[in-house]
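**Polypeptide and fold**
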Amino acid sequence: MIKTSSFFRIAARLLLASYWFSFSLMAAVSVTIGPTIIPLGNAILAKDITVRNEHLAIAIAVESAPPWGVARGGIIDVAVVRQGEIGPDKASLVDFIPNNWSSWPTTYQKITIEKNTPEEVIIKTIRDWGAVTLISHYSLKAGATRLHIVTQMVNSSVKNYPSLLSGYVYWPDGGYLFGVPGMHGIGKGKMTQAIAKWNAAYDKDWSIGLHAPYADMINYEARDLYLSHALAPGQKRIFEGWLQVSAKGDLSAMVASEIKLHKLTSGHILGEVKTNKGVKVESPAIIVLKAGQPYTWVMGSHGQYDLELPVGEYQVYATGKQFSQSPTVTINVIKGQALRLDFDSLLPPSEIEFQVTELNSGTPLDARISIEKGAVPLIEYLGQKTYFTELNTIGNRKLFIAPGEYQFKVSAGEGFKAKATMLDLTIKPSQTQLAKASVEVLVQPEDLNWYSADLHHHSDVLDGSTATEFVLRSQLSVGLDLAFLSDHDSSKNHQMMAKLANSRNIPFIPSMEISPSWGHFNAYPLNLSESLRIDTGTATINEVFKAAQELGASTIQVNHPLIPFGYLTSIDNDTVPGKYNPNYHLLEINAHADYMKTIERAWQLWNDGKRYYLSAGSDTHHVWNELSGLVRAYTHVKGKLTPTTYVDNLREGHSYVTFGPIIFPKQMFGTELPLKAHSKTNLDFDIQAVNGLKSVKLIEHGKTVQERSFNSSEKLTSVSFTVQPNKDTWYSLVVEDAIAKKAFSNPIWVKITK
């Protein structure tokens, strides 16, 4: 007979054993083959592999196509695991890139499970990149918060690769980018200013980053961590990295792993955070700088925080969501010691309401409001630098903000139709204030049937991080006349964008950026809800163009044609499957590429009589840190403005691209002007630059043949050029304003008649 006390002891032990058994099952590493168990994941086919433990889950593309035409074998889904539950996907791609997003010629990918035990899982991938073999091992252990990645790059050929940028990349799906410590806000270049060799992305309840000790270069806002190197015939190079996952919206885990991986000596800082009235800040943020540059932060709870740091000198301050920042304190972290550091001066949030109207008419304006001076939170989910007025209450925006001294820039069509207005405001704690701003609109091209669109813009698909509503808010705030959306290989947000645009009575051009590794193409206008039916990792150029037509597109735009993975670059390098296909229509002037190369290539094509015309796109992914409509295409449309009439006239060259100046030609761009040989004629234009007109150049056959200079006039200016051609030719304009913003026109064709 069992006594009652013994019974309860046995029951307790059984319960405890059951708990530890369940925990050990949850803590063990496991493999699933098939559509990923990661919510919202992109590994959706039967052969894909998902690996998980109690902290993180990843999915490897075995059958599903990775984005941007990358070869299969990389990670396309990453998730945080909390208490046994897998969170949503937070990665578009984690992979080894052999040479900075150049085209990826590949003929095979072999993915195998090398080890599968409850203690550790190892996945091996073997792929080719031209003449180079890439061998990667992904290793996840039970209890680990890091995935270990090792890649061998083997050149078994006689080909020499004298200049490569190779390494791991992490392209997040959502959240915010922190970049590399010491280089926050620097998008590309040598890591000479880096104070640690890791990157990170984050949101309020997660952070994910890459430790890359080999790296000496960054690219794409530090999503890419590269080594600049050569690979001679017969040479092998090994890369090692760790993918770090945390269930907190701070970077403390990145620093803790940095300490462990590099065997650094460390100490702690800890303390309490209160307002100036002694009230605990519920979720304080402790920001740590090193040599004056952002290094890490920790989010506390109930007013308390604790952070491990490597030994050394730091600058530290405290803040909170819409709270003011404390004074910065310089500290020294000593090995094995805990330094207490309290803060008690934070000021609580305030509310401000903006009302933006046109100066002369009083009409409410869609506007962009940005902080030019004043406190801008480093942690973006605590507060932003940029805000947009509401869609339905035009010209209005209410927001909570930290108290302090500010200068706001309020803009509506800035640089194209108007200048920005500056507001200097003192925001007092715990108060509500009204701020009125007027913007004077100086030119309205739509009154003369000239309409603008930004023909390369992303939302929140893959590398984009802008919700659809804010795409439209941003495009309206910069004075665009049509809405446009072009996500990579996706039409996911077209229906929502169409609904939002219709609510504001603005035409919407649905597009898709079809994205093989050897070139990106915007196809438009598309039928709503159409899905791409090709695998961009294996498709030929003919299949890409056919797919665009099946989506309903009448027009194909070659995006950033001459960057390393641009279509024309890949044609020059003979890396396009199916070789050259001439059946595209437009060449994009991309705001973030070396657009003069594209201009000069267009001029060469026009010299050969090939009528490929210019288009323009900002390639904006994150509207709070990037500017929609930074470059845009103005197109002349007679009659009703619709997506079809705009695109048809754009395709026919009745347009120009501009970073600011506005052009009104008397002879329409893209049309033929019949002339007798040696007869004189005038080419007349009206031009306006709200930043002041500096110069207008007349281009013939790619060379400046006439030029007019101006004294920074902001008024509409008439410009006339007299020409006397003796053979078939073309003329176009290059206009520059007083702050070096330019406009480039499509050609006026001259046909010599007998």
